[in-house]
Structure formats: structure tokens, C-alpha cells
Amino acid sequence: MMSYTGVEIAPGKARETVHHRIVIVGGGTAGITVAAQLARKGIRDVAIIEPSSKHYYQPLWTLVGAGVARAEQSVRDEARYIPKGMRWVQDYAVEIDPVQQVVCTRNGTRVRYDFLIVAPGIVSDWDKIEGAREALGRNGVSTNYEYELAPRTFEFIQQTHEGIALFTMPNTAEPGYTLKCAGAPQKIAYMAADYFRRHKRPVKVIYATAGGLLFGVPEFCKVLEGVCQRYNIEVLTKHELIAVDPVRKEATFALKDKPGETRTIPFDMLHIGPPQRAPEFIRQSPLAHRDGAMVGFINVDIHTLQSPEYPNVFALGDAAGLPTSRTGAAVRKQAPVVVNNLLKVMAGKEPDKHYNGYTSCPLVTAYGRMVLAEFDYDYKPTPSLPLINTCKERYDMWLLKKYGLPFMYWNLMLRGLA
User: Fold this and answer.
1) pTM value?
2) Looking at the predicted structure, is the pLDDT value of residue 328 above 60?
């Protein structure tokens, strides 16, 4: 079999070969949701390739970073959510050969398939920011994008009594890069600003984004600009974080509208939104886009979620090359499209269900307040809750974020019921 990744198989491992009608790469939100929906339709000949023994509800990490939830509340055993009758290949996928229809794992297992669903998620590229990897977790530098570090974020917020609290958003316009839940870096900025206000601390909050806008949907951008004004948050656009010095406590930014120029900002605490991209085995795979904005992400029709080159392959979730925000809400709408269209193809028919790019971003703006941003591929607001103006900061939306969405995730979505 041709090697696309150059990843070496562990020496001395037997190259076991197994075959399943359907193989799912990834046991995160997207993979388990699809598996659960397939199980409810009576489909059992399925293998799920997922190395982690733990399953994380990552949206809760914003609240962990703000001190209103515990990290332990966001994790459960993966085994609880593998549907009965499905094989769990607990290993890393390292290569996909869509011609031979086989996925190879790190330990040498070859998992053959008739139909493939690819949902491996994305990874943080910390090495893209000089000094970031070494800085994380100390000297006031943290991120809510890591399970172990989200609690540190709140520790640093508590320890900051004056000076500058800096929050950054990466360059998601760079081809091959993205950020899951792109609103998260500003959510924690708002929560921190509210914390400093409540505790009467003279801390200057700066939100620095590589983009040109606070938020891409005008209706919600206007609301969030008002939130920034209320907290006196300084918003810096076209600022891409490129280096961190944790000893001097300085962050260096490339100025996107002034090529070649940089700016260094001192900080007392720093929260980093990391640049993220598809895993290497996806980027090197024949399934990936080879150029353009979505280079390295899985090439699928943005409506049917089917590969244009390999009709027996579908993809969803963060690693799919879809021009929409990467959130659990997006997966909830993508999963039934993948399941329906996969079953159609298995029956020799054409896919007939379409995904419109729906996603939502629960934008926490204060302790006890949230805006629910819902929109589609055209960045048009698509509210799903009747008679409720989700463009306003609301306490009931805060309750949805803190209690309703986690309940829905663990008990409905991962069980194929929502």
C-alpha cells in the first residue's frame, strides 16, 4: 500500500486486518453522534477508530476558565458512548488509502471498509507561535483549548489585580488553518472583564484578533461591540500573535495590514486562542483539499458532505472542509445529513439531504448573560428558538449554556436522539 504520511508503524506489531461495512475515523462529538444515529437505524457492522479512553465536552471549558464549572464535569469514559455491537479500535489512525479502502493504525492494524466516515477533529499548532508551547501554564499564560489548562486560566484571572489581561484570536483566514468555536477567545475576555469589574480591579482588557472584525455576522457583531464598550475592552484587529516571551511577559504580533511590521504588547495574563488545523494524516491524505482556503481539510461537497472523488467517503466535524464555524451545534446538523446520504449511497441511490452550513456560537458575555449566535453559510441569522430574541444578552441563555446544552450533549446527542 502506498504511504502518504511517512508515519512509521510501531516495530514488532502484528499487522492484523479487519473488515467492516462502515468505518468511522474519530470518536469525538462527530464520530459518536453519527455512530449513535446509525445504531438507532439498526446498522451494526461498524468500527470506530479512536485512541482516547476519555470523551470531552469541550464547550464547558469556557466556564471552567471562568471559574463556574470544574474540568472534571467535562469528561467521561469513551466506552460509555461506543454503541453496543460496534467494534472500538482504540488506536490512532495514521493513514487512509481510499483506493484500497483501508485505514492503517499506529499499531499496525489495517481496517478495511466499504464505506468511510471521517471525523478526526483538528489539532492545535502551538509551534506556529514562537515560545507558546513552553509558556503555557506558567507566568500568566494559558488557554481554554486544553483540558489541563482551562483551570489555570481562572487561576491567572484571580491572580491578576492590575495591569493588562490580553486575549488573542489566531489567523483563521490563512489557508489550512481554523479555530474550533471561534467565539471562545472573546467569551473568556468578557468573563474576565466582568470578573475584574465585580472585584473592582483596575485591569485593562485587550482583545487582539488577526481578523478585521469582532464577529463575522453583522447583527451579532453590533451586540458584541456594545459589550466591549461596556467593559472598556480595547479591540485590536489585524493583530496576529506570532511570539510569546513568558519571562518578560510580552506578546509579539504581526500587523496584517502592515506587512513586515510587528507590535509587542506587555501583559500580566495572556489567554491564547491557538491556530488549529487538520491532523497530519488527513493533510497528507488523498482525501484532503490540495489548495485554496481549505487546503489540508477533507474535501467534501459542502451540502451533501460526500467526497467528490470517492463516493463511498463522507466527512463531518472540525476536519471537514466546510466554510462554517466549527462547533458541536454544526455537528448536530451535519450528522443526520451524513447518515441519510450514506444509507442512500449504500442502497445504490443518490444523496438527497443537504446541510445549509448551520452553526451556533453561545457567546457568554458576563456571569449570568449569553447571546446565542446562530447562522448559516451565508452568515444569515437562523434562530431556532421561537419567540426568543437571542441577539440580546439573556439570563435564560446562560442557563442553556451552563445546564441545558451539557445535558443535551451527554444524554441526547451522543445517544443519537438529537
Assistant:
1) 0.94
2) yes
Q: Could you confirm whether domain 17-122+278-355 is CATH 1.50.10.20?
A: no
Closest CA to 336 of 311, 324, 353: 353
Under 8 Å CB-to-CB from 214, ≥6 apart: which residues? 186, 207, 221, 224, 225, 228, 235, 237
Residue-wise burial string across 139-156, b where 16 or more C-beta atoms lie within 10 A, e elsewhere: bbbbbbbbbebbbbbbbb
Q: What confidence score (pLDDT) does residue 47 get?
A: 98
The residue extents of the domains of the chain are 17-122+278-355, 124-276
Q: Which amino acid is at 387?
A: L
| Catalytic residue ranges | 181, 361
pLDDT at 385: 81
Residue 4 predicted with pLDDT over 60: no
Q: 124-276: which CATH topology?
A: FAD/NAD(P)-binding domain (3.50.50)
Question: In whole angstroms, what is the distance from residue 329 CA to residue 362 CA?
Answer: 10
- pLDDT class of 330 with cuts at 50, 70, 90: very high
